[in-house]
Amino acid sequence: MTVSNRFSHKAYKKRFVVFATAMIFFFAILTVRLWYMQVVRADYYKNQSENNRIRLRTIKASRGTIFDRNGEILIDNHPYFNLAVVPENVSDLAKLLDTLATVINIDKEKIMTSLEKRRTPDFVPHTIIENLSREEVAKIEAHRLNLPGIEISVESIRYYPYQTLASHIIGYLSEINELKLKMDKYKGYNSGDLLGTFGIEKTYEKFLKGKDGLKQVEVNAVGRELNTLNMKKAEPGNTLFLTLDAKLQEFVERSFKGKAGAVVVMDVKNGDILAQLSKPNFNPALFVKGISSKNWRALADNPLNPLQNKVIRGQYSPGSVFKMVVAAAALEEGVIAKNSIFKCSGTYRLGDMRYKCWKRWGHGKVNLTEAIAQSCDVYFYNLGSILGVDKIAEYAHKFGLGEATGIDLEYEKIGIIPTKKWKRKVKNEKWYDGETVSVSIGQSYVLVTPLQAAVFTATIANGEYVPVPRLLKRIVKADGTTVEGLQPKKGKKLDISKATLAIIKEGMFNVVNKAKGTALASKPTVVTAAGKTGTVQVIANKLRAKLENGQTRYEFEDHAWYVSYAPAEKPQIAIAVIVEHGGHGGSAAAPIAKKIIDYYFKEIAGDDDHV
């Protein structure tokens, strides 16, 4: 063997040893690793394997239905049919769409674009059409053999059989956002879930939502479902019965057609809201699958504010409706007696200022009940000047004005009952005596909501306490049992004497039933009623004349108020009506209340379970 051959053999042997050593080392590491994974970490990787094989799918719970007090459905759930394509099951997509087009009306171009932009695997159904009609579903099912890869899925969505009826009470849903998903309050919600955003849907969200179910499924490596291993059924939401009467609500809405404003009808004893209207209203169905920007802008830009619940958020000067507060204060403080007389010549002088009565030539000599019946401004100018604004405010609060009513709706406003201290704090100005004159007839800074006006009227009617208005009558669970602890709240005791209330009630009775009463023309025919009209100036007459320039403008017209209770002898219901820019309370608002009272006691009262 030559030197070169010996050298070559040694080099080969050395390389072989290095290679063999490396292989032994590699297999040693592999063996140790396998032993570690299969023995030491066996349980861990077994769990990981199971997690890769088993998936949890959410089963959406159906939302609770909502009924009126008599079991009439106000909100239901209806099936919502979607059409989907499973791309991997379609050999010729163009041919499939051509066939589908012969069955129902479709936009093939739009569908093709949607499928091209999808980011899901081919085995995952891709929705191409939403909200199929039942007729379309039937046609597709009839041609199913000719439509390979087509699937129809069903989901539950809100259905409103009365469309716009009581929309501000019912409210609407919207998809939960990412910010709320991070809050503890919304633990258990998932992306895409719907959430009560407004009205009863929001107030009683936790009762209506229900509990989602879970389905444990076996999937393969790419996520395809192979088998259902376990399932926990969803629990539907609770059923709500509201205090509303659907028939009465419908009638109220018909009676208010073409007008803007609000109406409240409530039980004077327990605060049940029998009907509640804010106009203009809206259709909650617009929000079911997410409102379009066009529809949203139409609602948001409407100057009559259809999205605002004016019953609890509309703040208006109460006008002459407020005179009962001043009358109560004057009687309770001994400023006047029932037959105390003031002479009304059409104006009231305070220093160099002159304040006019609505009746240009005045009412002559009138006592308190006559002043209420004829709504004499001068009589109450005198009372207000004697009492002072702080004393008037004290009695307004006794009737629940300037305070939250406690209704089971969010975002309620409390209005304004001004005092000297209030003005100093808010305006940083002193209070002037002339402002008290205006306050005494419910103008100046005084603001109330229509609901507060209804509660105020109900308080006078029952004569004992300030009722707490409510919209929820009862909640029934899926098993048929009733949720406890939802009885009506009585509210605070009315700290006004029976004698004072009797005088005020007499004046309100005369408004409707005696000659010169401002609502005599709106006297109900079925039962007796008591009431009070109010007309609220929205712009000074001089400025109005200047801006109108000879033409009447809607937004400059006075607001028309009317509050009433019936029957006058034994009150059951109280009503508050405000017609925005309607003119005079006696001619615009009182006739609406008359219709409602007659309808209620003719068509509703005998059958309603609250009587």
Helices, by number, come to: 22
CATH class of the largest domain: Alpha Beta
Helix content: 25-40%
Report the major sheet.
6 strands, mixed
Kindly provide the radius of gyration, computed on alpha-carbon positions and rounded to a whole number of angstroms.
36 Å
List keywords for this structure.
single chain; 611 residues; alpha+beta; Penicillin-binding protein 2a (Domain 2); Beta-lactamase; six-stranded mixed beta sheet; five-stranded antiparallel beta sheet; 20 strands; 37% helix; 20% strand; elongated
Provide an overview of this structure.
With about 600 residues, the chain is of the alpha+beta class. It has 2 domains: about 60-240, Alpha-Beta Complex (Penicillin-binding protein 2a (Domain 2)); about 245-280 and about 310-605, Beta-lactamase, CATH 3.40.710.10. About 35% of the residues lie in helices and about 20% in strands. It contains 22 helices and 20 strands. Strands 2, 3, 4, 5, 10 and 17 form a 6-stranded mixed beta sheet that branches. β8 and β9 form a beta hairpin. The termini are far apart. The model has no long low-confidence stretch (mean pLDDT about 90).
